[in-house]
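job 3f2a | input accepted
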Amino acid sequence: MWALQAVPFRSLVVMDVSGSMNMDAGGKTRMQLTQEAALKGAAMFPDTAQLGMWAFSVGLGGPGQDYQELDPIRRMDAVTDGKTQRERIQGDIASLGGLVGGGTGLYDTALAAFRTVKANYDPRAVNSVILFTDGANEKPNSMTLDQLLAAFARERDPAKPVIFVTIGITADADEPVLKQIAAATGGSSYVAKDPADISKVFSEALLARTQ
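job 3f2a | predicted structure (211 res):
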């Protein structure tokens, strides 16, 4: 909590809602365990933190778009339509189960998230994307990993760094790819190979991001 208070935090949380998130993970689905971890995480942030949330799977946002914005990045104490951003994020997390289906549109979503955070950069904060996924890119005709990494290299601005924190869920997550995405942006990568460890891994990722 001290670390989160000390370092201004601005992040877009990007949650995989592909069909495999409904797989059993020891009495609960991968999605249910991820939701529990995310709700605990949402409670950790101070009011000054800025968070937004996307969900993603192939075609979720309509033809050619794999992500759906649930809430844009706002301060946790900002009030929109009578609810604080913290309450809205908690509601977004609770709604994720109803979105599960389809394949994993990882690469196109990752680049869109990077561009979104960069476009509204806050120089007072560490600007980041926190991406949860349990799989590998499954979108037909999407950009390749090499194209994604090349786009990061081309669009990175040392004056406006945007880092990725990738969190793989189970051993089915494409750990080598997630590591490359994080490394290309100066971020870090984690994998919860045991779904029961998702909360622990998420906490470790948040603390590492603030150092």
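job 3f2a | The mean pLDDT is 91.
job 3f2a | closed
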